[in-house]
């Protein structure tokens, strides 16, 4: 087991992908008017791609088109002081091809927010890192 300088376990790419696939909510980080913006989103993992549904013309849909973005998901248990965090950095693209839209519509990706969310953004996982926090005694 490899540890970082803070004593957190460094996760492999495979571990990171498995953990990403285990939660329905993450945070996408993008640039909005030259400033960093963070937005919680529902997502699904499709092989090694993060798939997000949003509204066409939304701030996220416009800002994430053909941009490099960051994506983060995590899970923590405060009582046991355990958890994990995975961060992805990669290119985001709007999905425009009808065949790919049809395929993505079949993923188990159901938005929690009201309103139409039939626009898909796919984020590549070119760079993926993760850390696990194990229980520590106090």
Provide an overview of this structure:
There is one protein chain. This protein is α+β, with helices and mostly antiparallel strands. It is globular and about 45 Å long. 16% of the residues lie in helices and 46% in strands. It has helices at residues 13-20, 59-64, 98-105, and strands at residues 9-10, 25-32, 35-42, 44-46, 49-54, 67-77, 82-94, 119-124, 127-133. The chain has one domain: Electron Transport, Fmn-binding Protein, Chain A (Pnp Oxidase, Chain A). Strand 4 and strand 5 (49-54) form a beta hairpin. Strands 1, 2, 3, 4, 5, 6, 7, 8 and 9 form a 9-stranded antiparallel sheet that branches. The mean pLDDT is 90. The protein contains 3 helices and 9 strands.
Layout of helices and strands, plus pairs?
Elements: E1 9-10, H1 13-20, E2 25-32, E3 35-42, E4 44-46, E5 49-54, H2 59-64, E6 67-77, E7 82-94, H3 98-105, E8 119-124, E9 127-133
Antiparallel strand pairs: 1-9, 2-3, 2-6, 4-5, 5-8, 6-7, 7-8, 7-9
């Amino acid at each position: 087991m490899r540890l970082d300088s803070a004593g957190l376990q460094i996760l492999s790419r495979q571990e990171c992908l498995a953990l990403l696939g285990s939660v329905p909510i993450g945070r996408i980080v993008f640039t909005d008017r030259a400033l960093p913006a963070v937005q919680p989103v529902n997502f699904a993992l499709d092989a090694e791609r993060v798939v997000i549904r949003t509204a066409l013309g939304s701030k996220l849909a416009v800002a994430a088109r053909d941009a490099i973005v960051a994506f983060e998901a995590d899970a923590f248990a405060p009582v046991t002081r355990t958890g994990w965090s995975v961060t992805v950095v990669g290119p985001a693209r709007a999905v425009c091809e009808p065949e790919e839209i049809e395929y993505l519509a079949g993923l188990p990706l159901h938005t929690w927010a009201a309103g139409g969310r039939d626009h898909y953004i796919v984020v590549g996982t070119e760079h993926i890192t993760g850390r696990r926090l194990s229980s520590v005694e106090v």
